[in-house]
Design a protein that fits this description.
GO molecular function, one term: metal ion binding
Strand order of the largest sheet: 1-2
Protein name: Damage-inducible protein DinB
CATH topology: Four Helix Bundle (Hemerythrin (Met), subunit A)
Largest sheet: 2 strands, antiparallel
CATH superfamily: dinb family like domain
Number of strands: 2
Keywords: Metal-binding
Organism: Paenibacillus lycopersici
Number of domains: 1
Family: Belongs to the DinB family.
Amino acid sequence: MTTIDGFISDWLSHRKVLHQMLEEVKTEQLDMKPWEKGMTLSGLVLHITGAMSMFANTLKNGEYTPSAPPQAFVTIEELRANVAADTEATEAVLRSIAPEKLEQTIEVFGRSMTGSELLQSAKDHEIHHKGQMFIYLRLAGIEKLPFFIYRG
């Protein structure tokens, strides 16, 4: 990755798919779990969005910074609005990261890595869980799914 703008563009090509995936979800499907100890469908969505927020703020602040607790929701419409707001807020944090932060070393979860490596790990984490979301949605009976990457 050479620039923060390049990272943001690549990340959004995946995050926009998460938004599309939620278009077919119904409120009654939010608590669906593929297995007893698994995350709920909505829990997985919140894990995806919260993790990227945490990674972005951690890089910006130079130390581990947990994400803010998710906004309360009851309906799929509220969850979609929360995801949209979180995406916008995370993009703003990413845009505020100084270019030199990408080359600086940061200690996260007992590992040292550059800011660029941290953001790549964050994007890989999101892609991994987005793949799980495809399975969740199929198990929930949703047949209409978007392509795995947004090409708008």
